[in-house]
Amino acid sequence: MNEMKEIWIEKYRPKTLKEVVGQEEITARLQSYVKSKNLPHLMFAGPAGTGKTTCALALAKEIFGDNWRNNLVELNASDERGIDVVRGKIKEFARTAPIGGASFKIIFLDEADALTGDAQSALRRTMEKYSAICRFILSCNYSSKIIEPIQSRCAVFRFRQLKEKDIKLYLTRIAKSEKIDLSDDAADALVHVAAGDMRKAVNSLQVAASLGDKVTIDVIYQTTGTARPEEVKKLLETALAGDFLAARNLLDELMINYGLSGEDIIKQVHSGMFSLSIPDIEKVKLIDRTGEIEFRIVEGSNERIQLEALLAYLVLVGSTSGRK
User: Fold this and answer.
1) Which of 3, 87, 136, 216 has the lowest tally of Cβ within 10 angstroms?
2) Helix (H) or strand (E) holding 41
3) CA-only gyration radius of the chain, Å
C-alpha cells in the first residue's frame, strides 16, 4: 500500500515553463520574458488549479537560476490582507536590492483579490515607486476585484480551465511514476471530478492511491465524495417520470452514501440536467428553478426541504411534458 510521504501536487509541480501543460499560449509569452531577462508587473487571473502559482515559480527559477529563492518572496493575501502588510512586509522587501547580480526581485502575491481596497490603493504606489528593482506578480481568481489602477500597471494573463486530455495525460504520468494501476474509467472519473482543476485531480489521485496500488472508478467516487453522474441522472429521470417517493429515496441514498451537502447535490444536478431527454424549453425551466433553489440554500434555507421542492418541481415538469 502506498504511504503519503510527500504531497504529489508539490512533488510533480513543473520546474520549468515548458513542463506546464494546458497553458501553451501563456507559457510561450512568459518564455519571451525569460529570454530578455526582464518583465513588467504581471497579473495571473483564472480558476483555481490551472497553473498560476506554478507559472510564477517556474518563471522566477528560469530568470534567477540558483538565486531564485533569494530574489522571490511569496505572500498569500487571503492570510494577510490589510494595509499594514503592504506598508510593512511588501514595502520592506521591495526596497531592498536584488541578490546575485539580478537586476530586480519578484514579489508573488497569491490570492490578491482578497486584499482590501485600502491595501490595494497602498500597493499601487509601492508598485510604482520601486519598479526599478522590484516586479510584482499578482495571482487572483477574479480580476474584477482588483482595482483598475493596479490592472493598468500589469500585463494580464488569463488562465483557462485545463482540457480533459491534458489532465488525463498528467495523471497517467504520475500513476506510472508511482507504479499505480490506474484504469481508464478511473482516470475519466478523476477528470470529471476535477472539472478543469489540476490540483484537485492530483490530490484526489493521491488519496485514492493511499487505499491500494489499484485505483478503480469505485474508489475514486468513494474517496472524493462525489456521486456518479449516472446516479444523479437516475434521480432526475425518476422524478420526471412522476415517482416522487422513489426519487426522494434516491436523494436519501446520495446524501447518506456519499456524505453530500445540499450545495454539492445542486451542482451535480445542474450538470446532469443537460443530459436529460426533454425539450430544451423544459431544461430552461429546470435550470431557472435550480438556480433559485441554490440561492435559497446558500442564504440559509433548509437544504432538505429545498431539494425535495426541486424534485417536486421535476415531477410537475414531467407530468406536463407527457413523460408521466
Assistant:
1) 3
2) strand 41-45
3) 24
The residue range of the domain holding 188 is 164-224
CATH of the domain at 298: 1.20.272.10
Which among 256, 176, 248 is positioned nearest to 209, based on CA atoms? 176
Q: What is the pLDDT of residues 104-163, one digit of tens each?
A: 999 898 888 888 888 888 888 888 888 888 999 999 999 899 999 999 999 999 999 999
Hey, what amino acid is at 213?
A: D
The DSSP result for 2-31, as a single string, is ---SS-HHHHT--SSGGG--S-HHHHHHHH
| CATH code of the domain in which 188 resides | 1.10.8.60
C-alpha dihedral, 48 to 53 to 55 to 59, nearest 10°: 170
Decide: 254 and 260 in contact? Cβ < 8 Å.
Answer: yes
Query: What 8-state DSSP symbol labels residue 161?
Result: P
Residue reference for cell 475514486: 220
What integer pLDDT is reported at residue 171 of this predicted model?
A: 93
Distance CA 147, CA 253 (A): 46
Q: How many CA atoms lie within 13 A of 149 on its CB side?
A: 12
Separation CA 112–CA 222 (nearest Å): 34
Residue 294: DSSP 8-state: H
pLDDT in tens, 52-96: 999 999 999 999 988 888 888 888 766 665 566 667 777 878 888
